[in-house]
Prior knowledge:
single chain; alpha+beta; 5-stranded antiparallel sheet; 23% strand; rod-shaped
Amino acid sequence: MLDSGLALALSRRIFGYARLDAALKVLERVGPLMEWVPPPGAVITDSPVFFAMEAEFEALREGRRAALDLPGLRLAPDESPPFSVSVLHDPETERFHLFASSDRGALDVERQFARERREARLLADQAAAAGRLIREQAALYYDIVESANDLVFRLSPKLRVTFVNACACALLREDERLLLGRSIDDALGLSPPEESWRGLLAPGQHASFEQELKLQDGASVWIWWSVHWIGDKSGPGEFQALGRDITDLRLLRLEAARGADESRRAAVMRERLRIAHDLHDTLVQSLVALAPQLRLIRKVAGADASPRLLEELTHADNAVREGLSRARAALADLRGQTIETQGLGAALEALAARFAARSGVHALAEIDQSARAISGEAADTLYRIAEEALRNVELHANARSVVLRLSRNSSGALILVVADDGQGFDPAAVEFGHFGLIGMREQAELVGAAFHLRAQQGVGVRIEVEVPEAT
């Protein structure tokens, strides 16, 4: 009779037992764990566990082996846990004893291995999917970059070309192999230091700017660059530069600016004409009506009038004539007829002539031919400054002569000079707001011009205004 604990272990497949005779025939088998053993009377080597293992049993019989151990066996993997089998030989009875025990540790190891194999397969599948995605994205990136109409460069932290797309090669008319490894300044043909990228970029920084490129055929194109740093500021990384041809856009901007300037000038002209009409209908008409009234008063007074009255009437008549002349000149200036139709040169010559006739000071206008036809906002400003400067000469300089000079320098800037030989003044002793100097300087600054004053007591005054690249 089996012990109850032993019977429980046998029933729970914890262990099993079987006996064989000398001919390897099964004598008995005990426990469900031994169901794989053939029934009594059958030969043990007919079982799948000991199939074709007669030599091992013979080694046990002859004492060449102490035991025959078979660990980690599984006959029905979906139904039962793995087990181990040990076979011993009893030389006294010439019988073999089989002991089987459930190998639950092997089951845990097997499960762990299975889980690790599943995880490894999952990681391999994920890595393969990530690799495919990276390859697809890389192919898409290169397809977009190569087919793009924009210039694309990739640059090392030292601004050397590591990648350039076909559009950039076509614009620069360079082979890709000749561009790789060169500095971006050299690749783009940038020579002046102010055009260099080195002063614009540093690792970790982004920048966008417009730049003019000179092509091999002598043509110029304007490129808008957007440069981004890809990577950590302190770690490895590179610059990616995207360039877009904005030459046509800049032309449109210039056309728009020119149109806006023309519209502004037209608005100013309309306002001038309105003011001119108002002055003509009021001030000029009043002066015109006053002149015959003065002549009538002189006639009525007759020869018996006092010399003082006749003298005052003469002064009044001269004042009316002078006022009418100045009013008509002012109307002409408001209409801007001379500048708009004949250019700044002719307007300055007319201004000098009127000044000489009015003041008696010899006035000379020296006009460079290249600057004669200038018009627009800069021309209007220079005219107003010259007008104010001559007014100062008339009121304060006590000069014998004055020169108006209009010219261009080697860089294309427009230069206006008004110089007199009058009594001059000491700039340190006179407030700058005197003589309308602040107004002239402010007018110059409005058009981006530089205003220079040189004055000395007893020598005269020289005013110079420089407008950069005036057209």
